[in-house]
Amino acid sequence: MEATSAGAMGSPRPDLYRTRTRRSTGEAAIRYALLVAALISVLTTAGIVFSLLEETVVFFGDVGVGEFLFGTKWTPLAGGESQSFGVVPLVFDTLYLTGIGLLVATPLGIGSAIYLSEYASPRVRRILKPVLEVLSGVPTIVFGYFALTFVTPVILKGLGLEVGSFNALSAGLVLGVLVLPTIATVADDALTAVPGSLREGAFGLGASRMQVSVRVVLPAALSGVVAALVLGASRAIGETVIILVAGGQKANLTLDPAVAMQNMAAFIAAASRADIPTSGPKYGAIFAVGTTLFVMTLLLNAISIRFVRRYRQVYE
Amino acid sequence: MNTAAERSLSRKVVERASSGRRTKDLMFRLALLFSTSVGFVVLAVLVIDVLLDGGSRVSLDFITSPPSRISPERTGVAPALLGTIYLMVLCAVFIVPVGVATAVYLEEYADRDSRLSRLIEVNIQNLAAVPSVVYGILGLAFIVRGPLGLKPVLLAGALTLGLLVLPVVIIVSREAIRAVPSSIREGSLALGATQWQTIWKQVLPGALPGIATGVILALSRAVGETAPLLVIGAATFLLFSPDGLGSRFTAMPLLIFEFISDADTDLRAAGAAAILVLLALLVVMNAGAIFLRNRYERKW
Predict the structure, then answer these.
(1) Which of A23, A200, B36, B97 has the most CB atoms within 10 Å of its CB?
(2) Distance (Å) from the C-alpha of residue A27 to the closest C-alpha of chain B?
(3) pTM over 0.90
(4) What CATH fold (topology level) applies to the domain B64-296?
(5) In whole angstroms, how large is the CA radius of gyration of chain B?
(6) Tens digit of each residue's pLDDT (9 = 90 or more) over A255-282
């Protein structure tokens, strides 16, 4: 807080130094208190990384990294000979369930976004968008109940499909409904950010509304729309309860959506509720899977941030 | 000059071309309407399904009595509902000061381009995308065991959920603070107020409706979370209500999980009824947020 710019004038008069008063000390103290609060979020990240890595490192002392990453048999909670720590089935199921979800949510989400930004009147849009956001506020345990007691027995079995009471199809479809509002609202933001002059130019050349939407606005907002999809994927990958309730308790390395599947997050929740000792590879498996999940979502998030930056750079 | 025949021919050509275009446009429009309606239809079907399954079970008794496996037709949700309300209050006590302080620091004090504030900013963005189950692992390793060693008690649950929804509070509060025009700050500073006096007496009151909305939204997310509480080892079925920060607890989503994982049809119906209670709580909270926004939000 000292005045340092004395310059050619020689040293400044002493009464021009800023003196420390009670008021200025208080101001500085408040500033540091606020900084400490802001650092809590940094500490949270550090805490997450540390708590994951600590046990993961111990885990890889017992189980080889290669065995974990490339093994195709995932039975970590079993005893003796049948215990195996190959994470491939769990990762496969996670991606497979996310894939089913995105298969549903991508066309519907982008369709809703195009409708909201290009077709709906401002009044309709003002009503529809918040209702869509309500859908994303429904607790996932409710979606789990819906998948277990309605989608599987009423819809899937009603259509004559031979599915188990826990199956990947039902969990995946409901997962799609869960991420639909995320994709729709983020993609809608990207589409509305496209300047009106592009639309007017296309309309002036005689393009129809559909041509404007599909050939002009959508390509212009493509990086934002991709970011929306990546964000949706990252939410689907990390979802726990829907899969825990309706997907089943076992990771299956199969393409058959009628059988039970378990994703990484559901494994973490199920295993931490199982009666297992708080050390050893069974316990460590929770953290090793957690690390894998954390790294995957972090990568997806980085990709999505990059895409968002790109479309911002173009139009703002 | 065109002859009448030429004119009618060219009109026919144009009409045929545009009628094909019109059908295609109409089909596209219908497809878009269909996509948009799916979300709403699912929401409606979901609510009706839960109402049909559990509507008849909701009563004052259901809310005030403890759960029971022995007589599933008379089971209630009292300990879980109280647990959820306590969690919400404790969570608010934690996230309001920390979240608002972070937002104030980032908006009013931090040098935008300094490495530290960029680090904090990227960090908050990333935290918002971390799956909730990973926060459960953090809670398990740091709060329940490890350094804090609290065991799976009410305070541990509230802290875990608080860390989970903190990014929401920070992001929304920052927007609210940013919306207060700088002329307000400049006026206050020109009158001799210090920076903190300006923030405390001018900026925060102006941003309050936005901040309150953000806090309610964050809390309604915390209330609906199941995964982190499962991971930290909170009880799913508890006969007594929590009686202090160090008491074992359960919460509505956990009890719902317990009920609907059971094959007993009476317990499943109770699960649906508990879902209705939870949804009602969320509707009240969101209505509160909307009311606050409409009633107090200032347009500068």
Answers:
(1) B36
(2) 6
(3) no
(4) MetI-like fold (1.10.3720)
(5) 27
(6) 999 999 999 999 999 998 887 888 888 8
